[in-house]
Design brief:
This protein is α/β, with parallel strands linked by helices. About 45% of the residues lie in helices and about 15% in strands. The protein has two domains: about 80 residues; about 160 residues, Rossmann fold. The chain is built from twelve helices and nine strands. Helix 1 crosses helix 5, helix 7 runs parallel beside helix 8 and helix 9 crosses helix 10.
Length: about 280
Amino acid sequence: MDISLSIIFAALYLRGAPRQFELRKFEWPKVEKCLRLGEPLLADVADCLRADGLWPEALALSCPSLLSWAEDEVLGGRVLTVADAHYPNTWISRLGPGAPPALWVCGVLPPMPVVTIVGSRDVEHRERQFSRRCAEQAAVLGFGVASGGARGCDRAASQGAPAEATIEILPYGLELIKAASTYCRLSVCAPREDFTTTAAMERNVLLYALGEAAVVVHARFKSGGTWHGAVDAHRRRLTKLIVREDSRNLAHRALIGLGAAPLARPQDLRGAMDLQPMQPHLVC
C-alpha cells in the first residue's frame, strides 16, 4: 500500500505533474487516512476519495494518465513522499499538515540525523571556513549535514561533510543543476522551475525543520533569507537554533538575545546543541 500511496501523493502534489489544476497540499493527511482505511486498488482510488468527500483529489485522479505518469516517476526513484519509510520524521512532527507530501529527489537520503548549516552568500573566508569546519564536526559527532546549496556558507558546509551524508534542499528545479554531485538533493519545485523568493522561503522552513539543530554562520540584521529564516524558525520552534558568536554582528547578537545558543568554535558544536534544548514546536 505504501508504494501505491507514494504514487498517489506524487500524482496529487508534485509540482510539474501533468494535472489540470493544483490541490491544497494541507489535505494530504485526510487523503492518507482515507486510503489506508479503504485500501483501494489504484484504479479505484478516485472512487474511494469521492466517497469520503475529497472531491478535488478524486477529480484530479480521474485522469488515468496522471497515475501512470506518477508511477513512472516513483519507480524511477525521482520522488520522495510522506509514504516513504525514509521520509524525514522531523518534518511530520514539526510541520504537521504543512510537511511537503511529495518532493523531487536526486540521490539517497542519509540514514542519520542531520545538522542544518546556513548563512549568507556573500561572506569572507573566515565565515566559509567556519561553516566548513562545523560540517566536519557534525560528521565527527555522527550527524549528516543539510544546507541550502547556495554559494558562500551553504556551499562551504556541503564541502565539509562526506558527500554521502550531505543533503541540499534547493529553491529551484533539480534539472537546473549545472554541476554533477553525489549529494542528495531535494526540491519542492518542478524540475525546470526557476528560483523565486517564495520557493526560497519554503526551502528555508524545510531546512530548519529537518535538522536536530541549525547553525547560523552569518546573517544580516533584518535583511536577507538567513535572518528571516532564523527568526521564523525561532518563532515556530522548528529546531535548536545555534549562532556563530560574533560581537560585531548585530544580527547574531539579536538572535542570541532571542535565545539562540552562541557558538564560538566549531569544535564546541556538541556543547551548543546540549545547551539549547528543543522547545515544544508550533505547527503552523
